[in-house]
Amino acid sequence: MSTPPNQQRREESAGLMEYSTESLVPFGPIHPALKEPEYFKLVLEGERIVKVIPRIGYVHRGLEKAAESRPWVQNMYMFERTCGICSFVHSLCYGQAVEELTLYQVPRRAKYIRTIIAEMERIHSHLLWVGLMGHWAGFDTLFMWVWNDREVVLDLVEAISGNRVHKSMNAFCGVRRDMPENMEDRIVERMKFLTDRARYYRDVIDTEETMLKRTENIGRVSADTAEKLCAVGPMARYVGLKRDVRLNDPYAAYDEVPLDVITTTQGDVHALLRLRLDELVASANMVTYAVKNLPDGPIRVKIPPIIPAGEHSSHCEAPRGEIFYFVKSSGGRTPERVKSRQPTMANLPTALELLKGQTLADIPVVLTAIDPCFGCMDRMSFYDTETNRSWTWSGEELRQYGINYYFPERSKKQHGLTKGDGPLTNRCLRDGF
Amino acid sequence: MSETLSQLGKYAEEAGTKVTSLRKNESTVEVSQDRLKAFLAHLVNDVHVRHLMTITGLDLGQTLAVIYNFSLERDTIHVRTLVPKAKPVAASICDIVPGAVLYEMELHDMFGIEFVGNPLKDQKLLPPEEWPADLPPPLLKTTKADQIRRRLGLEAAKP
Amino acid sequence: MPVKKTGAAVPEMFRFMLEKPSTEAYPFKSIQLPQRFRGKLDIDPAKCTGCQVCSLVCPASVITMVDLGTRKVGDRELKIRRPLFDLSTCIFCGECVDNCAFNALELTKQFETATPNKADLLMNKAIVK
Predict the structure, then answer these.
(1) Are A238 and A216 within 8 A, CB to CB?
(2) Is C17 within a domain?
(3) What is the pTM of this model?
(4) Measured between CB atoms, which of C4, C22, C59 is closest to A74?
């Protein structure tokens, strides 16, 4: 006794409209790795998105459950592998949460080294993101050039820690390896190079007409909404909220190294581009300062493998936002509970608010703008309220659609599509959905 | 004690509890379920502690603890409430803090706590489609990793 | 107010055309690795005493201790154990290297470890006499 498909969809759609309130969006938690599948259901009216219903948890690895059966130090390596781009900050946050339960202090030199590596990771992450924005907006040359410059910071990280991605530098109450000999001049020179390149890219995105067309006045959300939905990181700073854990609650050496927190009230995707490039320059300055003023002393205090009982939480500023770890110990060799909250999860409600009212062609740019720690749409499923039809597009098809939508002269030659005359329907008919 | 915490102490007294300082800049308040929403309304509207970092769940044996982790400048404030395991029903705070939707849904999937008033509480989010209906929530101490693996048909990983 | 134009990146393009390519010429030329590069694990069997600390600290369960008999010390029978490494799950963290009190372990610069035969990644240098 099943309802016919059309009626089923109308019922489903009616139920969705019922749920629709102003600042609540349907969504789910934990986003571990870099590129992963997620499933969005968009409710469209013509070209505009009315509602987004995602379905995630495809790469949920059960890290919190696994942490309960592993010794403390092994968990540090496991949580480092939560993410490839912000791996150091994950192990730092977990380490800080556990260190406070012991009675040992972190040496000052270790704090400076942690700051240096964390800021280098931020530079790497922002360069990666600027390249991805270029790719999804169709500006592949920018993507290639930025990722070429990213090799500079990856080489530095490899020289210090031995690996480009999973640095494994953190230990409880210290760092595992000291800075190599004679690295200071090389680091200062490379930071200057990256600063010049960041300024050049900022020039390009400010003047290049194609980039401006794709990113200006897109992805707006009000500061009040962002605050109510607990946005973190650049997603809070681009609407004017001065939320940065390094400023509000300094950890590692951030109370000694001069910090420049950048906010803007421009409030669109173009502002996010400028914000992250400015943050890159600020991070490069911090690394230069920290390297020149590195204090002497030990880099590590060895602690016993049993952590005293208690609860503690810690938060850090990852490139994407605020990471939060909560650790509970019952005095044994393994933790009793570890809770980790990644920044993309905190930003998801805000991200979905951003999508409402955007056109279909802007989805790749807007979703990349939130700098998700999951892949930018491997598969998107569409449902048209007017014709009751649903179909699926791959990420590459959506990206191509966006380029064709904005630059119809090029697409006219290729597909015979023009902007605004119902390209959705044309595409459906052409591709036989 | 900072001004925030002294204001907090006043509202905590009204709710019949007190603020305990765990260490510098970190305090915890334990509130009973029925006084929770009033206390949180004071916290958000009067003391201006707007940023909810996350909601953590803990399995304490016979009860489940729901900890709301708030942050304001240098202070971290944990608001703790207990829910009995036999009847894990709690009140949702989505009308006070709209950003709590996802966190409550996660707790529902991981611990089985039902948040009354969450607009999306009936949607299953984290577990895969083939999650058996009679398999208990994963993060409870009584649910073993082997049990989950076996029921989901995954081969046992190397110990 | 910056002037909008198309082709803001074109002058840079000419610079890239004249420079040498950024692509590493591997495998036709060898790669320069930094001194701290963490590659495949290696053990010096002469230095290993079988204290089993490496197998206790490994996060990825790479090391298993194998019993190789006993020896007499005074009037006690002591077990002889040596480690067996299954390097297919190694995460190159270096915990074993840091914790070995006898400096028997080392992370070399070898990174070309891909093989269709998993048995190649079983390192039993410490066991085989």
Answers:
(1) no
(2) no
(3) 0.84
(4) C59
Residue with tokens 């023009």: A418
Tell me which residue of A355, A371, A351, A373 sits closest to A363, measured CA to CA: A355
CB contact under 8 A, B76 and A315: yes
Q: pLDDT tens digits, residue range A195-220?
A: 999 999 998 888 888 888 888 888 88
> Mean pLDDT throughout A100-118?
92
Query: Are A27 and B102 in contact (CB < 8 Å)?
Result: yes
Residues forming a β-bridge with B72: B75
Q: Select from C110, C108, C102 the least CA-distant residue to C82.
A: C102
Flag whether residue A152 sits within 8 Å of chain C, measured between CB atoms: no
CATH number, position C107:
3.30.70.3270
For residue B23, give Cα distances in angstroms to A29, A108, A223, B1, B75. 29, 21, 33, 12, 10
The torsion of the CA quartet A188, A191, A197, A198, rounded to 10 degrees, works out to -140
Q: What is the ipTM of this complex?
A: 0.89
Contact call for B159 and C89, based on CB within 8 A: no
CA dist list (Å): A401 to A142, A407, A419, A425: 20, 10, 11, 13
CATH of domain A69-81+91-341: 1.10.645.10
Mark yes or no for CB contact C34/A208 under 8 Å: no
Total number of domains constituting chain C: 1
Question: Are A204 and A210 spatial neighbours (Cβ–Cβ below 8 Å)?
Answer: no
Q: Give the whole-angstrom CA distance, residue A208 versus residue B11.
A: 55
- Asked, for residue C26, whether it belongs to a domain, the answer is no
Domains, in order of start, for chain B: 3-123 (3.30.460.80), 127-159 (no CATH)
**Alpha carbon of C55: minimum distance to chain B alpha carbons (Å):** 13
Q: Output phi, psi for A36, to 5 deg.
A: -145, 160
**Structural domain boundaries enclosing C43:** 32-123
d(CA A130, CA A281): 13
Cβ–Cβ contact A162 with C under 8 A: yes
Can you tell me the distance from the alpha carbon of A309 to that of A105, in angstroms, rounded to the nearest whole number? 18
**Locus of tokens 């603890």:** B65
- Determine whether B102 is exposed, middle or buried from the number of CB atoms within 10 Å of its CB (0-12, 13-18, 19+): buried
A326–B contact, CB cutoff 8 A = yes
User: Which residues have a Cβ under 8 Å from the Cβ of B115 and sit 6 or more positions away?
Assistant: B90, B91, B92, B94, B104, B107, B108, B121
Tell which wins on pLDDT, A37 or A34: A37
The strand order across the sheet containing A389-394 reads A48-55, A39-45, A379-384, A389-394
**Contact between chains at C6 and A208 (C-beta distance less than 8 A):** yes
Q: What share of chain C is helix, strand, coil (3-state, %, to 5)?
A: 20, 25, 55
Look at residue C24 and tell me if it is in a domain: no
| Non-local CB neighbours of C20 within 8 Å, separated by 6+ positions | none
State the average pLDDT for chain B: 81
Give the position of tokens 């909250």.
A341
Q: What is the mean pLDDT of residues A166-182?
A: 90
Q: Does C53 touch chain A (CB under 8 A)?
A: no
- Asked if A206 is an interface residue toward chain C (Cβ–Cβ < 8 A), one would say yes
Do the domain assignments include residue C87? yes
Note whether B125 contacts A19, CB cutoff 8 Å.
no
CB atoms within 10 A of CB A117: 25
Closest of A265, A273, A261 to residue A130, by C-alpha: A273
Nearest CA in chain C to B159: C61
